[in-house]
Design a protein that fits this description.
Largest sheet: 8 strands, mixed
Radius of gyration: 28 Å
Number of helices: 23
Low-confidence stretches: 578-600
CATH topology of the largest domain: 2-enoyl-CoA Hydratase, Chain A, domain 1
Distance between the termini: 77 Å
Number of strands: 25
Number of domains: 3
CATH class of the largest domain: Alpha Beta
Mean pLDDT: 86
Helix content: 40-55%
Structural class: alpha/beta
Shape: globular
Strand content: 15-25%
């Protein structure tokens, strides 16, 4: 009994100890939440004070505009404003810079008497589609007509960042930095052997010999058809890049090609010093530490006593202030509505950075029923996705045109497959010469895992059904009758795609089929084949839409049609736009971008593939999609 009592007391003590431990954990966890909430609240209050107490940044009468894009250049930022604000504060999340912010800032700076110089700080810029870079380059060329200096600096130049830097009057690179032109390539991971080894039945249905989106599940290498098509459009893009950079730097195109193809020789001649190799090749003007760049900027715009640096203003606060002060554009009245379609096309409602069939259609209806919007421009930057969602969007544009509102499409870096599908209900299609477009084709996939489940887990599926469709499961072999039905649906979807393109482009379905088959084209090649009406950027498309609506130049405004934000989202957006520089700073003194190691990059390949497959939510399982990954 004594032992039993002792054990009982010990159990009681143990229970009390566990309860105390739980209480302590709750207390610590609660305190952590309170502290985090107080920190966020403090940041929000401080930001609100900063926003409400000022009409914007105080800009010296001799200052430099610092354009320091971070991450990638995009047509539309991903996610909601509150997530982006928190990501900026914590340093987490995807870094993105809005293309139109960069363009507007450069345009304002040209005529702003306070801005005496423009500094491109490209250390944190990871690039963007070539067509977007070309639009920024056009704005920079226009800025240079003012005679104001344009300076570029970076610790290391990527191929994308150097495209912009090449336009500068002076190009600086850090002593321990460099510049490598690697060209454009398209490499993918192929899973055929892995699928066979795991004994997965990856059922694939497609139309179009060039439709390469599903090739990684069918083959161990790139097909000859895909190799032919990819080399063609990659060659067009590379030729455009080389020609533009050579012209900007006053070099022969062959010199740039030699630097890209024989970089190891240039590096050896510079005894392994990448910065000196770039200097010797005439790609940069000066190899220098950051403080040397600061001194040069002080020479140009003057010294800021308090900050011990040059007078400067960051892009975000500057463009926000200038948009408020811009008196050259009407604030109300007739408008051209711009709808951005960026990302994968999916069924239903989707957040910014993705294209939802329902959410994007709602924006089109909003523009269609707005009496002030006289014409609509669709800005497409998408490799496609759900065929069903694409048709929902296309139909809304068809209705807008039926009500007398012109619709003009402006293709960004990519407008392929479903991105081309949604472009067909338009009066006119504009593309950049380097837009990646076409890929008119359809596919569907349905993998089943019954063999590895049986072999490795000993799990089997059995049962009864009154029709084949009732037994369609990922852990059961696909019924041949369902497979035949799937393929028939894919072929019908392809005919629908051809019919829409042929009607829109004034061709026969047979003529479209010859340039379709899932083949990808550059904007120039697509224009030559009648898939595009005009070559040019968004400004040209907007002007054309205004002309079709009989709006006089200067008598209309450009309105981006976006989802109405909730109160908390509007607050977060204002904080993000107005207080970002105050919270985290935006200046030349900032450090570089942290990157993951090689293992994270390998894991990211599989994570991206899983994310992509998870985004396929077409109700009919039909996809007009092309994965465009240009390295």
């Amino acid at each position: 009994m004594t032992e039993l009592k002792r054990a009982s007391r010990l159990n009681g003590v143990g229970r009390i100890g566990r309860r105390v431990a739980v209480w302590v954990w709750w207390a610590i966890n609660g305190l952590r939440r309170v502290l985090v909430n107080l920190l966020v609240l403090g940041i929000v209050i401080a930001a609100l004070v900063a926003v409400c107490s000022s009409d914007g940044p105080e800009i010296h009468d001799s200052t430099a505009l610092v354009v320091a894009p971070q991450g990638t250049l995009v047509e539309q930022k991903s996610g909601d404003p509150s997530d982006r604000l928190l990501g900026s504060i914590t340093g987490e999340g995807q870094q993105e810079t809005l293309l139109r912010d960069v363009l507007d800032a450069i345009r304002f700076a040209k005529d702003d008497a306070r801005v005496k110089a423009l500094l491109l700080d490209l250390s944190k810029f990871q690039g963007g589609g070539l067509s977007k870079l070309q639009e920024v380059a056009d704005a920079l060329r226009d800025y240079k007509e003012s005679g104001k200096p344009l300076i570029a600096t970076a610790d290391n130049y990527s191929q994308g960042s150097y495209y912009l830097a090449a336009l500068a009057d002076e190009v600086f690179v850090h002593e321990l930095g460099g510049l490598q032109l690697q060209g454009f390539g398209r490499y993918r991971t192929y899973y055929r052997d892995a699928i066979d080894r795991l004994e997965v039945d990856w059922n694939i249905f497609r139309v179009g010999k060039f439709k390469s989106a599903v090739e990684p599940y069918l083959r161990n290498d790139m097909s000859p058809a895909a190799r032919e098509a990819n080399l063609a459009w990659l060659g067009d893009l590379w030729a455009a890049y080389i020609a533009d950079v050579a012209a900007a730097r006053g070099l022969e195109p062959n010199a740039l090609t030699d630097y890209a193809e024989n970089f190891e020789r240039h590096l050896q001649e510079a005894r392994g010093d990448a910065a000196q190799a770039a200097l010797a090749a005439g790609l940069v003007d000066k190899v220098a530490q950051r403080d040397v760049v600061q001194k040069r900027m002080i020479e140009l715009v003057g010294y800021h006593e308090e900050k011990h640096s040059f007078h400067q203003v960051a892009l975000g606060p500057y463009v926000a202030q200038m948009r408020e002060r811009d008196a050259t554009k009407p604030k109300r009245g007739p408008a051209v509505g711009v709808i951005v379609a960026r990302g994968t096309i999916m069924d239903g409602k989707q957040p910014a950075g993705s294209i939802g069939g329902d959410s994007t259609a709602a924006l089109i209806r909003k523009a269609r029923h707005d009496d002030d919007i006289k014409a609509i421009v669709l800005r497409v930057d998408s490799g496609g996705g759900s065929a069903f969602a694409s048709e929902i969007i296309r139909r809304e544009f068809e209705l807008a045109r039926a009500e007398g509102k012109p619709v003009v499409v402006s293709m960004g870096s990519v407008a392929a497959s479903g991105g081309y599908w949604i472009s067909t209900a338009s009066d006119e299609i504009w593309a950049s010469p380097t837009t990646i477009t076409g890929s008119i084709g359809i596919f569907g996939m349905f993998p089943t895992f019954q063999k590895p489940m049986e072999k490795y887990l000993g799990a089997r599926v059995d049962g009864v059904a009154t029709a084949p469709g009732a037994g369609m499961r990922v852990d059961r072999a696909l019924d041949p009758r369902l497979a035949a039905a799937y393929q028939t649906g894919i072929e019908n979807g392809y005919r629908d795609f051809l019919d829409r393109v042929s009607e829109a482009r004034g061709m026969t379905p047979e003529e479209v089929d010859k340039i379709a088959q899932g083949r990808v084209w550059s904007g120039t090649a697509a224009h030559e084949r009648g898939l595009v009406d005009k070559l040019g950027g968004l400004d040209g498309a907007v002007a054309s839409a205004a002309s079709r609506a009989e709006l006089e130049e200067g008598a209309y405004r450009v309105e981006y049609v976006e989802r109405e934000l909730e109160l908390k989202e509007r607050l977060a957006k204002e904080l993000f736009n107005s207080a970002r520089a105050w919270i985290i700073g935006e200046s030349i003194e900032e450090g570089g971008v942290a990157r993951g190691g090689p293992y994270s990059e390998v894991l990211a390949l599989f994570a991206e593939q899983a994310r992509l497959l998870a985004s396929f939510n077409d109700p009919n399982g039909l996809y007009a999609y092309e994965m465009i990954d240009v390295d």
